[in-house]
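To close the section, here is one more complete example, presented without commentary so you can practise reading it yourself. The ligand is pyridoxal-5'-phosphate.
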Amino acid sequence: MTIDQYANRFVCDLVAYEPGKPIDETARELGLDPSQIVKVASNENPLGPSPLAKSAMREAIEEAHIYPDGGGYRLRAAIAESFEMELGNVVLGNGSNEIIELLCHTFLNRDAELIAAEHAFVVYKLMATLFGAKYVEVPDPGFIHDLDAMADAITEKTRLVFIANPNNPTGTMVDQTTIDRFMTRVPEHVIVVFDEAYFEFPDSPPDTLKYVREDRNVCVLRTFSKIHGLAALRVGYGLASKNVATLLQKARQPFNVNAIAQAGALAALADTEHIEKTRAVNRSGMAFYESAFAERGLEYVPSYANFLLVKTGGGDRVFRDMLKQGVIVRAMSSYKLPEWVRISIGTEKQNRRCLEVLDSVLAAAAVA
Ligand SMILES: *Cc1c(COP(=O)(O)O)cnc(C)c1O
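Output:
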């Protein structure tokens, strides 16, 4: 007899999300100095938080005894303005991950189906499982979402279709024409979610906000965790038609985004200098890895985001061996890609260190 028999069976069946290994934990386990560890496992901003966000957060701390604005007025207004939308189109989340959960709360039940690509961000599957919905996984040849096949997979029971663009962990992107063709095939009873956590990295990402403006049943997800360097704050947002947004607002906790985070995010939104610097560092880091992998004959997936999927063979082993030398990458066996690891683009120094350690690990494996 265990307590499990009294619990929601969907919770019992869940396999918990495995995040990138934390620096502190790695330091503790290996007896290393945390400052010597390079973490390139969670697509974080290697330049750190937006400096404007840091000073706004310091100021906000003085008011930490007051409950946050539960309606997130200032931040939502700034987001709405920057995209020429209205307040009613903007939903804040405790990370965009929370908005994924709100969408599932709102639209899923045990009869519903959620469609995503085979190598899509794994949180969609976890959430579908949690809500007892059917998770429909559509093959993605060449690691690119096959939107025609995803449209074919829509049934009467489909409620949500997730399109991660660029996708994590593959870094691939679908283009405007493909999205537009897909959208002509989506019926009323289906909500399309464009997860655009890496939207700010590619030079010309497709425009999906036009579907919000057209009042289609879509939700576009963005986050402060990546380009703005505020992953620890947990702030993301959804841009949705008002009907969809109003439902999501009902499903959230009253104070789901804390006041320090709201202040930091508001300042970060205006910090175009930090955004541009981050893009430049990412571009040169990407070029560094692309030429290094090509020289070594290592297969990789061309990426539009701030990370790369590279085929090293024995991903779990490569992860463990690199960890021993203080470099944290992400093994991909949970994505059914046991031969691959995902590396986030770091600073120039971090990239060199990571490559050096990867080289030594692959050389040792070749001898063994
Ligand atoms: C990183 C990431 C997110 C962002 O998560 P937050 O909860 O906003 O930190 C969302 N979707 C994808 C695909 C991601 O890779």
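Once you have examined the tokens, check your reading against these statements. Residues 43, 95-97, 121, 164, 168, 195, 197, 223, 225-226, 231, 236 surround pyridoxal-5'-phosphate (CB under 6 Å). The chain has two domains: 3-48+273-367, 51-271.
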